[in-house]
Amino acid sequence: MRILVLGGDGYLGWPTAMHFSSEGDEVMVVDNFSKRQIELNFGIEPLDSIATLHRRVALWKEVTGRKIHLHVGDLLNHRFIYKVLEEFEPEAILHYAEQPSAPYSMWTREYAVYTQHNNVIGTLNLLFAIKRHCPEAHLVKLGTMGEHGRLAIDRNEGYSINRPSGRTDGVSYPQSPGSFYHLSKIHDAYNINFTCQNWGLRATDLAQGVVYGFETDHTRLHPELRTSFHYDDIFGTVINRFLVQAVAGSPLTVYGQGQKPRSFLNLLDTIKFVELAVENPPRPGEFRVFNQFTEVFTVNQLAEMVREAARTNGIEVSIQHLENPRHEPEELPYPVKPAKVSELGLSPHLLSAGLITQMLDYIAGAAARINPEVFLPRIKWRQDSKMTVMD
Ligand SMILES: NC(=O)c1ccc[n+]([C@@H]2O[C@H](COP(=O)([O-])OP(=O)(O)OC[C@H]3O[C@@H](n4cnc5c(N)ncnc54)[C@H](O)[C@@H]3O)[C@@H](O)[C@H]2O)c1
């Protein structure tokens, strides 16, 4: 298949591109390097320095003999994305190209506006480009479980209900998101659903949990084929941060009481879920939402798992509770509906002590590059939050 990976320089986009290329698909990556610009603006870096996308694409060719096409450009430039679709004629479009940080979107008016403009208008430009140049293409869009938000109701894989008459209506399941970033994802979903209903496009929205891990068979082929691994307060996700804090011998910082359950999945399973979605496309006019996660943990459980694994490896770390910089209920039941996409065939890679140890070992190899100054949250959802240590 001809597969277009938007956001191909990113944490998920690059290993996805290598995966499909290794399967023999014709792959093109697109990126505007806006994530690297945000990193530069705030002095944050992934744990390992990451080769440029041009270098990684050239190296991939050298190591595997396979070509990944590369276009540098911005989804906000509609002429650019029209041209890419016209020339490449993708059969599947994997859309990762958004600003992915909830804290960043909550920092200032400017970053909230940037996030929503980049994500919503970028996706809207893409939808118009698909309509014009490849209306049969299957759009696979990365959403998040955070769209479901704070409601203590079943997190259904929404957008379709069956009426007694037998007719199926496309409506959104009730949502209550927790940041301007999550709101951008919901706005996207409405726009995509609308274009499926009105223009006959076909799309899958993957409501994804928090991803952890940084290695795949392909990133291991060469150190410069690695994908980015963030542990800072802007882009770092919770497991990644705990692992790096443990290696640095710093307390594992839990926000609030840490009793809120969250959904997680391994990087390898993100790629597999996307592959399953691509192999099983919706019919024209259909908008599907799949929940995409494999496990649910509270943050306390995660901290305990990392502390235990670190202890077995001779590292003693404490767990410290900070006042929650986010505005979210402390405890929620997590009545998540199991991911339907799993039924298509997935053997999940679950978070085991062995896997945590493996990740700790890897991080220990890059310990000299750890910057403990980016461990603590700078961005508060509420201005009156004092960010104090609770115990
Ligand atoms: N990483 C996770 O745990 C996670 C969880 C849930 C959902 N997601 C979603 O998955 C997608 C990918 O996440 P990620 O962690 O790989 O993020 P990432 O920031 O590493 O990758 C996104 C890439 O898209 C590029 N990009 C952003 N806006 C663009 C634009 N207008 N034009 C062209 N390129 C643009 C960035 O430069 C970056 O390289 C995002 O939509 C994110 O919201 C990620």
**What oligomerization state is this entry in?**
single chain
Beta-strand content estimate: 15-25%
**Shape annotation:** globular
CATH architecture: 3-Layer(aba) Sandwich
Total strands: 14
Q: Roughly what is the average pLDDT, rounded to an integer?
A: 89
Sheet with the most strands?
Answer: 7 strands, parallel
Estimated structural class? alpha/beta
What is the N-to-C order of secondary-structure elements (H for helix, E for strand)?
Answer: EHEHHEHEHHEEEHEEHEEHEEHEH
Distinct small molecules bound, one entry per kind: nicotinamide-adenine-dinucleotide
Helix coverage percent = 25-40%
Q: If helices are DSSP runs of H or I spanning 4 or more residues, what is the number of helices?
A: 11
Low-confidence regions: none
CA distance, first residue to last residue: 54 Å
Q: Order of strands in the sheet with the most strands?
A: 3-2-1-4-5-8-12
Radius of gyration: 20 Å
Structural features, described:
The chain has 391 residues and is of the alpha/beta class. It has one domain (2-299, 326-374): 3-Layer(aba) Sandwich (Rossmann fold), CATH 3.40.50.720. The chain has 11 helices and 14 strands. It has a 7-stranded parallel beta sheet, with helices on both faces. It has a 3-stranded mixed beta sheet with strand order 9-11-13. A two-stranded antiparallel ribbon has the order 6-7. Helix 1 (13-22) links the parallel strand 1 (2-6) and strand 2 (26-31). The model has no long low-confidence stretch (mean pLDDT 89). Residues 7, 9-13, 31-35, 74-76, 96-100, 118, 122, 142, 144, 208, 210-211, 228, 237 line the site of nicotinamide-adenine-dinucleotide.
